[in-house]
User: What shape does this take?
Amino acid sequence: MSMSFPPSAGHPCSWASGLCPARPTAFWPTWATSSPARAICTAHLPWRQAVPAALGKNPPFFGEFTVRHPEDKNVELLWHCGPFAYSLKKPGTVAREENQRQWFQVKDGKFTICRFDQDDGHYQLLNGTLESADGPYTFGTYLWARFNNLTKWERKLIDGPYIHHMAEVEGDYTWELREFCRLIPHLDSDTVD
Assistant: This one.
């Protein structure tokens, strides 16, 4: 079965049917002007079905790769302008509201990170884990993220098809994501391991 994006209302995986495990969202209105592969914010397919244990207690967030840590070559700032759930705030740290946006650091822990994307019809889910790290205070909502090999992650972003926006959720759900990819035709799990 071929899938058009977004699926039409009659399609068995249409957003309106409730059967599709994801729905499109946009940071700005890209859906009206481009394909979903070019949309900046896409709710990732596996979040509702591959990590149901996280839903309701560990909200996902959508950080983007921005800049390396000033002193640690394997730590990257995952940042956004303020849309993370307040329950992700690191205890004992300052939270602020600026221009109707919240600013705070995400709590410490181990997180799953992933990005669903495609290139010329080849669909892939880049996935792996990271650990929180200490780093300088900054504005917006953010997490200093320690990767086993940040250079390899950066190479994936440079070579594509992925862009710098990623989905993160507390906990290690890489096994579930990889199983999800195994069960979905034409969707490959991609890792940096």
Summary: Residues 1-53 have pLDDT under 50 and may be disordered.
